[in-house]
Design goal:
Blueprint lengths: L1 H19 L9 H28 L5 H8 L6 H28 L9 H12 L4 E5 L1 H11 L6 E5 L6 H10 L5 H10 L5 H7 L14 H13 L2 H11 L5 E4 L6 E8 L4 E6 L10 E8 L7 H8 L3 E4 L4 H9 L2 H9 L3 E5 L14 H12 L6 E5 L19 H4 L2 E4 L12 H16 L6
Parallel strand pairs: 1-2, 1-7, 2-3, 7-8, 8-9, 9-10
Antiparallel strand pairs: 4-5, 4-6
Length: 445
């Protein structure tokens, strides 16, 4: 009996603490709770005045004796006021909580309290403004980690992709390449459920010419035709996937990536046209540029960079994902002129045909050769390199003396289960810690 009573008291105490969490600063609900109580108080005063008027003017009849009992007139007036106030308070709180739970039922995850869901939503809504420049699976991995910290995310992706499904749609329909856009939207999706899996679905071979196409690529391309603009198609796709944050193209112009490459053993340079052709050509990349030269940047991407608290460059293919963004002059200028903390995330492993034999310093040097020096405040390099990589890849090491040239931050950011891939949560937490180390917490309570 005593154990049951103890468990009951503990449950009641935990429930009371859970209810009091609604008063935690920053949830944005205290003002409305006070307004509800004020309204209930005024209703109570009006009801009391009406009841008193009826009670005083009605002749003495038998049913008034029951009213005396219900109104606890046999108790002291102060005690009666306290009892009715507590009953009213409890009823009001219980009713509001149950009402809110009914309204939020479609949005609550199993096993998560409503106050936790609201607190997490408010925290991420006040999170730092982060702009990320990159491409491929590396950028998508980073976004999956960062979305746990803030909704104020902007991913800026290249429009130079001309391979795979994106390249085929680009040549056949004349649309801008949707591949990197699709990956980022899926990564930023609020809940990667069936609709997100459908967005990432890729048709297998032999399906009436659909082989190799991603459903998301077709969806964005179709929306571009329906809405009349590529940027509107991205926005609508984000709404379908319940995305917090935004994915923006670096430019809305039809650009092509061109590279001068040194051919091994031939002692000559060749010019390669097309982003997909660069890794396929065996040689060392000397220089890359866009055609047409100096395309105008997408204005919203420039604004996102100028207003950001943190700008992250990478991870992603150095010459075919990262540099095509920075080769848009307005974007490079926005990165340089922004007051944000600028961090470069060096790739974990080399990419065959693109960065063979590269070290961390080589990645930084390649970017600076194209857009100028002094662009980054911090460089993040991986220091755990014991796992075995797929054939053709090597760990990117930070060479000795690199700390004297660049502000280097070494950390274990590789995913032990997927060598060569970043660990999303770990990398995102490091970025947030580095930002707060410089600025302090940016959220307002």
């Amino acid at each position: 009996m005593g154990a049951r009573l103890s468990d009951g008291l503990r449950t009641a105490w935990n429930e009371a603490l859970r209810i009091l969490r609604w008063l935690t600063p920053g949830l944005g609900v205290k003002r409305w709770i006070l307004l509800i109580f004020f309204g209930a108080f005024l209703i109570g005063i009006g009801a009391a005045m009406l009841i008193l008027d009826v009670y005083r003017q009605t002749p003495e009849v038998w049913w008034l004796q029951w009213f005396d009992f219900i109104s606890l007139r046999f108790l002291d007036r102060t005690l009666r006021a306290v009892i009715f106030a507590l009953l009213g308070f409890g009823s009001l709180v219980y009713g509001v909580v149950r009402f809110n739970r009914s309204l939020m039922a479609p949005y609550l995850r199993p096993g998560q309290a409503m106050v936790d869901t609201l607190a997490d939503h408010r925290r991420r809504g006040r999170g730092p403004r982060i702009a990320v420049i990159g491409g491929g699976h590396g950028l998508a991995t980073l976004l999956r980690g960062l979305k746990a910290h803030t909704y104020n995310l902007t991913a800026i992706v290249t429009m130079a992709d001309d391979g795979g499904s994106s390249g085929r749609l680009r040549s056949s329909l004349g649309v801008l390449p949707p591949g990197d856009i699709r990956n980022c939207l899926a990564a930023l999706s609020n809940d990667e459920t069936l609709i997100t899996q459908l967005f990432q679905y890729r048709f297998s071979s032999g399906e009436n010419g659909m082989d190799g196409h991603s459903f998301g690529n077709l969806f964005i391309s179709a929306l571009s035709e329906i809405t009349g603009s590529f940027e509107e198609a991205i926005a609508e796709s984000g709404r379908v996937l319940s995305v917090h944050g935004q994915v923006l193209p670096a430019t809305l112009h039809d650009v092509r990536l061109v590279a001068d490459m040194a051919v091994p053993l031939a002692g000559m340079e060749v010019r390669v046209h097309g982003e997909s052709q660069i890794p396929a050509m065996q040689g060392a990349v000397r220089r890359v540029w866009l055609e047409p030269n100096s395309p105008p940047a997408y204005p919203d991407a420039v604004n996102a960079l100028l207003n950001a608290d943190l700008i992250v460059v990478g991870p992603g293919s150095l010459y075919t994902s990262i540099l095509p963004n920075l080769l848009v002059p307005d974007l490079a200028a926005a990165v340089k002129n922004s007051s944000a903390l600028k961090i470069f995330i060096c790739n974990l492993a080399t990419q065959s045909g693109e960065t063979d034999g590269y070290r961390c310093g080589d990645h930084i040097q390649a970017i600076e050769n194209h857009v100028g020096r002094g662009i980054f405040d911090i460089v993040i390099s991986n220091q755990e390199q014991s796992a075995k990589l797929p054939q053709g890849s090597e760990w990117v090491v930070a060479e000795e003396g690199l700390e004297a040239q660049y502000p280097l931050y070494k950390a274990d950011v590789a995913d032990p289960e997927q060598p060569g891939h970043h660990q999303a949560a770990r990398l995102a937490q490091i970025l947030i810690d580095l930002l707060q180390e410089r600025t302090g917490p940016l959220t307002e309570m």
